[in-house]
Specification:
The protein has 257 residues and is of the alpha/beta class. It has one domain: P-loop containing nucleotide triphosphate hydrolases (Rossmann fold), CATH 3.40.50. The strands form 3 sheets. It has a 6-stranded mixed beta sheet, sandwiched between helices. Strands 2-1-4-5 form a 4-stranded antiparallel beta sheet, with helices on one face. The chain has a two-stranded antiparallel sheet with strand order 11-12. Bound molecules: adenosine-5'-diphosphate and magnesium ion.
């Protein structure tokens, strides 16, 4: 369980998050939604210690995040950033092997277990046949699967994904989301991700976190949080919900921004 209490994050004087209180359930999929610039990436960065917070606290499995060593954290948490840049001239195999770095001692090489995990991660993401390809030559969907494989090679208990479906066409979006769901089910990895598509968020998550202008608007099951009221309040959208759907499926009709 991740507990966030009274979290505040600032960039110089600009407040990017304030009064944030959320609980992320272990072994579940939680998705953060909210308009551009509301603080979604900032929250993932604070949770992964890529950003300092000015006040409040974050606990991961009852431990204060500030007291967890970076190397220890890297063994239990992986972050796939919003727009990761591809290191020049690197192969798929090499990039995925970076995921093992927290586990290998200083000056040591990858061992058999590391190679097994790398192969497993490539297999999971259906990228085994691409091992020797340069990442730069891959399509957007393939590249995204390699990044996820790298995160998986870290064997994280917690996986943070910032807009993992961006730049992908609709079928690759679902492919990546199905992969995330499968990882969650088979390895009981806690997943916290940011998605733009409200309906995909509702379909794939057991919990939704809604942010607007640096503040928390709500947290809970999709049926409780994705409602006409929040669509209006948070996204300035009026619309309808599809009837007889297993999860809230919003059909926007007009924006009154
Ligand atoms: P989101 O991911 O929800 O689109 P972000 O968390 O990236 O939003 O950003 C939240 C706010 O903080 C935005 O107003 C953004 O301009 C600002 N911000 C993000 N990164 C920085 C930075 N490095 N320096 C200053 N302001 C930033
Ligand atoms: Mg963002």
């Amino acid at each position: 369980m991740i507990k966030v209490r009274d979290l505040e994050v600032k960039y110089d004087k600009k407040v990017a998050l304030k009064n944030i209180n959320i609980d992320i359930n272990e072994g579940e999929i939680t998705t953060i939604i909210g308009p551009n610039g509301c603080g979604k990436s900032t929250l993932l960065k604070a949770l992964s210690r890529n950003l300092k917070y000015s006040s409040g606290s974050i606990e991961i499995h009852d431990k204060d995040l500030k007291k967890i060593k970076i190397r220890e954290l890297a063994k239990s948490m992986a972050l796939l950033p919003q727009a990761p840049s591809v290191p020049y001239d690197i192969s798929v195999k090499e990039l995925v092997s970076y995921g093992r770095y927290p586990f290998i001692g200083f000056g040591k090489r990858l061992n058999r277990k590391d190679y097994e995990v790398i192969d497993w991660a490539l297999e999971k993401c259906d990228m085994k046949g691409y091992k020797c390809r340069k990442v730069a030559t891959l399509s957007g969907g393939e590249r995204q699967r390699v990044w996820i494989a790298m995160a998986l090679a870290q064997e994280p208990k917690i996986l943070l994904l910032d807009e993992p479906t961006t730049y992908l066409d609709i079928s690759h979006q679902f492919e990546v989301l199905e992969l995330i769901k499968e990882i969650n089910r088979k390895t009981e990895t806690t997943i916290l991700m940011v998605l733009h598509d409200i309906n995909q968020a509702a379909k794939y998550s057991s919990d939704i976190v809604i942010l607007k202008k640096a503040e928390l608007i709500g947290q809970g099951a999709p049926e409780k949080t994705i409602t006409s009221q929040t669509m209006e309040e948070v996204f300035n959208l009026k619309g309808k919900f599809l009837e007889n759907s297993h999860y809230p499926h919003f059909i926007p009709e007009m924006s009154y921004r």
